[in-house]
Design a protein that fits this description.
alpha/beta, Beta-Lactamase, Rossmann fold, 3 domains, five-stranded parallel beta sheet, elongated, binds adenosine-5'-triphosphate, DNA binding, Homeodomain-like_sf, HTH-type transcriptional regulatory protein TyrR, transcription regulation
Length: about 475
């Protein structure tokens, strides 16, 4: 039985104005008084609440769990998340001790549905953000995989070291530079390296491939245009890359493809640091360093009247000849290791080249130079059926080599440590013995080691062994 409960009228008014629910029960758990918000939260008329035991209200699914019961059980303040009418409520119950009367329980109930929803949305948003951050990291890594680190110029051969010394010196002086060399030797990488080691390194490096842009558009691409310069032009006009490169370096690749009619304008830019945007009558000044590159024979083009002589001499203040890969064959293993590491990581493999395959790399002429070598390695890592890439798996063009010609392959102990070189040799021996003998026991016999020693090494190097290239039985 509930005793009559008296709550001062002014308290009732205050409690009824609250946006949070107030629920008062006696010390046996019978509801004595609730404010208007609480009635709405419970979702039942007042007469179905007052005088009822909280266990009954709970069993009629007006709310669950009952915080009043929890307070009465523990005889201390309790907070709990309640569910009522599919909403989430934070209910905090307090035992209020009374001197003259029986104690009672006061429960303060805050609707936190929207907060929970936004925190869930926040969680979701966070997980989406995390997903994109991870994807971005991966993309960055992939990007790093194919783009050599700017400052990293691979090569230790004498020819390459001499060239490196020259570019180191020229980076410091602000002179115009012409980089010459076959396709894929690294002219663009060198231009960027020069910029990044020069005093202009904090300003933009803007590359433009003269052969990639139609001759008619090249002038506006270089110098920009004023509004209304020609039909189809952007109404506001457009900045040229000369302006974008201000203070930095403009790298003009394939300069041999610069149309004859534009050549005087480039000469004016180089000599007087002046240019006129298309459709403009005013002359602009600029402060940029110009580096150009070509794989054409510019002096022959001059002789044939296809390139202006004065511009040729102006461009060629300092000339850097980048050696072809066949002129620096000692560097081939460095590039092989470099790209093998990159593509093993990218395709989750642990491939190595057999000595014969490395010989093929060393004996091939590489007309496409480093770019071609990179492509061959990527293809081999993708297509090789075992971790040992053998000569037979290489493209036909590489397989044509004189069996009897002395090998040019000398392991580079500066790039590869002795233990890592010996590991490569051991891996090769294991893979080959298995391919030849078809079982781990016979392969171990052939190598003069026990079968368990053989298997230990297979495990150590994580090798996926196959009997032959066409046989897919693997050891594990
Ligand atoms: N010394 C080097 N060290 C590391 N990577 C290099 C080096 N030289 C070239 N590469 C790589 O070789 C590839 C070709 O280089 P790059 O594009 O600079 O050649 P290029 O001479 O400018 O070619 P093209 O004449 O066809 O424009 C790139 O992937 C580049 O990262």
């Amino acid at each position: 039985m509930t005793e009559p409960f008296y709550l001062d009228r002014s308290f009732q008014d205050v409690f009824n104005k609250l946006e949070d629910g107030i629920f008062i029960a006696d010390d046996s758990g019978y509801a004595l008084w609730v404010n208007e918000t609480s009635v709405k939260q419970i979702g039942s008329p007042l007469e179905e609440i007052i005088g009822k035991h909280v266990t009954e209200l709970e069993s009629r699914e007006m709310f669950t769990p009952s915080v009043t019961n929890l307070v009465l059980d523990k005889r201390e303040a309790v907070s709990s998340i309640q569910t009522s009418q599919n909403r989430k409520l934070l209910a905090s119950g307090y035992l209020v001790p009374m001197e003259a009367q029986r104690d009672y329980v006061l429960v303060h109930v805050k609707d936190i549905t929207d907060m929970v929803r936004s925190s869930l949305q926040l969680e979701k948003a966070e997980s989406v953000i995390n997903f994109y951050v991870e994807e971005l990291k991966k993309t960055k890594e992939d990007h790093k995989l194919t783009e050599t680190e700017d400052s990293e110029l691979i090569g230790k051969s004498k020819k390459f070291m001499e060239m490196k010394q020259l570019i180191k010196t020229t980076a410091q002086v602000d002179a115009t530079l012409l980089i010459q060399g076959e396709t894929g030797v690294g002219k663009s990488v060198i231009a960027k390296n020069i910029h990044e080691t020069s005093e202009r390194k904090d300003r933009p490096f803007i590359p433009l491939n003269c052969s990639a842009i139609p001759a008619a558009l090249l002038e506006s691409e270089l110098f920009g245009y004023k509004k209304g310069a020609f039909t189809g032009a952007n109404a506001k006009g457009k900045k040229g890359i000369v302006q974008e490169a201000e203070g930095g370096t403009l790298f003009l690749d394939e300069i041999g493809d610069l149309p004859l009619e534009l050549q005087p304008k480039l000469l004016q830019l180089m000599q007087e640091k002046l240019y006129i945007p298309v459709g403009s009558s005013s002359v602009e000044t600029t402060d940029i360093r110009i580096i150009t590159a070509t794989n054409s024979d510019l002096s022959a083009m001059v002789a044939e009247g296809r390139f202006r002589e004065d511009l040729y001499y102006r461009l060629n203040v300092i000339s850097v000849e980048v050696p072809s890969l066949r002129e620096r064959f000692e560097d081939i293993p460095l590039f092989v290791h470099h790209y093998m590491e990159i593509y093993n990581k990218k395709y989750n493999r642990s491939c190595i080249l057999s000595n014969e395959a490395m010989e093929c790399f060393q004996n091939y002429e590489w007309p496409g130079n480093i770019r071609e070598l990179e492509n061959v390695i990527e293809r081999a890592v993708i297509t090789s059926s075992t971790d040992l890439i053998v000569a037979e798996e290489l493209p036909d063009k590489l397989k044509i080599y004189e069996e009897k010609s002395p090998s040019r392959y000398v392991p580079d102990m500066e790039k590869q440590s002795l233990p890592s070189y010996l590991e490569d040799v051991e891996k090769q021996a294991i893979i080959k013995a298995f391919q030849k003998n078809g079982s781990s026991r016979k392969a171990a016999d052939a190598l003069g080691i026990t079968q368990s020693a053989f298997m230990r090494r297979v495990k150590k190097y994580n090798l996926a062994l196959q009997k032959s290239l066409s046989n897919s039985d693997s050891v594990h």
